[in-house]
Amino acid sequence: RDAAERNYNIRVVSVPGGGVSKAVYFPIVPTEIGMVKLTVTAQAAQAGDGVEEPLRVEPEGYRVDRNVPVVIDLNNATDFEKVVQMLWPSDVVEGSQKARFELIGKPFYTSS
After folding, report:
1. Which of 4, 9, 59 is nearest to 39 (CA)?
2. Least CB-packed of 30, 95, 97, 108 within 10 Å?
3. What is the domain count for the chain?
4. Which domain of life is it from (predicted)?
């Protein structure tokens, strides 16, 4: 990162010691979706400390679920193939798409 970007989230705080603590506000503006590493460091004249924690960044917006039921009929064949078109909303956040495939065996019985 360039120097201006690094200095954006620097705060100078005076803590008197003796068990006293201070809260400092840092705005976090994620630039990518997924797991990112959040690093916080503190430095004093004679000591320093730091911590790194994973931060899950999820896209803003709303969840859209779709169900595409498919009947698999193997009465006259041993193989089955079906292409399912993935239809994403027009305002989808790039990189946030997820798909799940679930197969549930429920045999249908015909009465003769």
Report:
1. 9
2. 108
3. 1
4. Eukaryota
Q: Could you tell me if residue 7 is inside a domain?
A: yes
pTM: 0.45
27 falls within a domain: yes
Are 68 and 93 in contact by the 8 Å Cβ rule? The answer is no
Q: Which of 41, 39, 37 is nearest to 56 (CA)?
A: 37
Per-residue pLDDT reduced to its tens digit, 21-35: 888 888 887 888 888
> Is position 111 within any domain?
no
Distance of alpha carbon 95 from alpha carbon 26, whole angstroms:
26
* Confidence band of 6 (pLDDT split at 50, 70, 90): low
Q: Which domain holds residue 49?
A: 3-11+22-57
